[in-house]
Write a structure and sequence with these properties.
Blueprint (H helix, E strand, L loop, with lengths): L1 H21 L2 E5 L3 H5 L4 E4 L3 E6 L8 H25 L7 E2 L2 H10 L11 H8 L3 E11 L3 H11 L5 E13 L5 E12 L4 H12 L8
Parallel strand pairs: 2-4, 2-5, 3-5
Antiparallel strand pairs: 1-7, 5-6, 6-7
Length: 214
């Protein structure tokens, strides 16, 4: 009986801590936000800068495979963001450039793998858009997926967190390159979380603050 009570207390404490972590968010709006975005018609979504780290590096860690995984996740989050916004396009005041077109234009301009070396107005000019949405996703894996799956089976989904991290989303004006809006959200990385689920979860928090919402 005592062991059961102790287990319930530990699980409850963990859930409370995760909820508090998930609620951590920050929103920045430029004083000129409404004035600037009123001129925007087309917005491009850039590949998200993605960083995956480990609290304890896996024994079978492969650097090349790790780098490829970060690149794949970068464009996966970009695609998920585009899909989400496209699905709800009637709710927004602008159109969003197809991400395949965005990446082709970035590649032709020699920017795709060097986005951090160019200003946002330079990127917007190359893409022919009025603004760009960029982002950063950072995650630290704290436990194995196998361990998380076992926990999920035992507790019906409670405590199946495999890591933690943060997701940042930024809107820059294409003419000046100035940041007009920034959203930061702490995220929990569950074993069954896809990039679509990640973006859906974040955009539910963003919806009331997203600058292009009607």
């Amino acid at each position: 009986m005592k062991k059961t009570l102790l287990l319930l207390v530990l699980v409850s404490t963990n859930l409370i801590a995760l909820a508090q972590y998930e609620n951590a968010k920050q929103v920045f709006e430029s004083p000129k936000l409404k004035e600037v975005i009123a001129t925007h018609k087309t917005v491009a979504i850039l590949p998200f800068n993605t960083k995956i780290s480990f609290k304890k590096q896996p024994k079978d860690f492969n650097l090349d495979a790790h780098i490829q995984k970060e690149k794949t996740m970068s464009t996966s989050i970009q695609s998920s963001m585009y899909t989400f916004l496209l699905r709800k396009s009637s709710n927004y005041t602008v159109e969003f450039q197809d991400v395949e077109k965005t990446n082709i234009l970035l590649k032709k301009a020699g920017l795709l793998d060097k986005l951090d070396e160019f200003t946002k107005d330079e990127v917007a000019k190359a893409l022919g858009v009025d603004a760009v949405i960029s982002g950063k996703f950072e995650t630290e894996q704290t436990r194995s997926e196998a361990g998380a799956i076992v926990t999920t089976v035992l507790f019906g989904g409670l405590g199946s967190k495999t890591g933690s991290g943060s997701l940042t989303m930024v809107v820059n004006d294409g003419k000046t390159g100035d940041m007009q809006w920034r959203f930061f959200k702490a995220m929990n990385d569950g074993v069954f979380t896809s990039s679509d689920e990640l973006i859906d979860r974040m955009m539910r928090k963003v919806s009331r603050n997203f600058p292009y919402s009607k």
